[in-house]
Amino acid sequence: MIDPADLEKTLTASFTDSTVRVRDLTGTGDHFEAIVVTPDFVPLNRVEQHQRVYKALDKTEYESLHALALKTMTPAEYAREFPGETNTGKANTGSAPSTEPSPPIRLPIVKGPS
Questions:
Q1: Is the pLDDT of residue 78 over 70?
Q2: pTM value > 0.70
Q3: What is the CA radius of gyration of the chain?
Q4: What is the pLDDT of residues 91-108, one digit of tens each?
Q5: Which pLDDT band holds residue 32 (cuts at 50, 70, 90)?
Q6: For residue 105, with 0-12 CB atoms within 10 Å meaning exposed, 13-18 middle and 19 or more buried, which class applies?
Q7: What are phi and psi of 85, to 5 degrees?
Q8: CA distances from 74 to 18, 46, 51 (A)
Q9: Burial level of 10, CB count in 10 A (0-12/13-18/19+)?
Q10: Which phi and psi (to 5°) does residue 41 adopt?
């Protein structure tokens, strides 16, 4: 069983200035949804972005990973999709950063085939 926090830590360490959120979709530790926001994706198309994420997870400890719903974005794409928020999930008010922990980023709902 894979811990979402381990996936999050691995992905965060793999990309520059990244914000990563992972959640377990089924509670079984093998179906996950992830959002990865990083400037590393700027020159890449969506397929190349996803390939980079899968390459970062190409380790034996993730062999039991059965499904991963990915949403990859550059910081600019994140700003367009979630106006008023930074890629840390906090409102972008222009004020000094808070010392309070950031709330989780709102992950888009990924629906499977009906």
A1: yes
A2: yes
A3: 14
A4: 444 443 434 444 445 555
A5: very high
A6: buried
A7: -120, 150
A8: 9, 10, 15
A9: middle
A10: -85, -5
Mean pLDDT of 24-52: 93
Longest dimension (CA), the chain: 45
- In the chain the domains, ranked by start, together with CATH numbers, are 4-81 (3.30.300.90)
- H runs (alpha helix) in 2-45: 4-14
Closest CA to 17 of 82, 101, 87: 87
Residue spans of alpha helices (H) in 38-111: 46-56, 75-81
Cβ distance 34 to 53 under 8 Å? yes
Give residue-wise pLDDT tens across range 48-68.
Answer: 999 999 999 887 677 788 889
Q: The tokens of 45 are what?
A: 């198309």
The length of the chain, given as a count of residues: 114
Rounded to an integer, what distance in angstroms lies between the CA atom of residue 110 and that of residue 71?
Answer: 9
Instruction: At 49, list the tokens.
Output: 């972005």
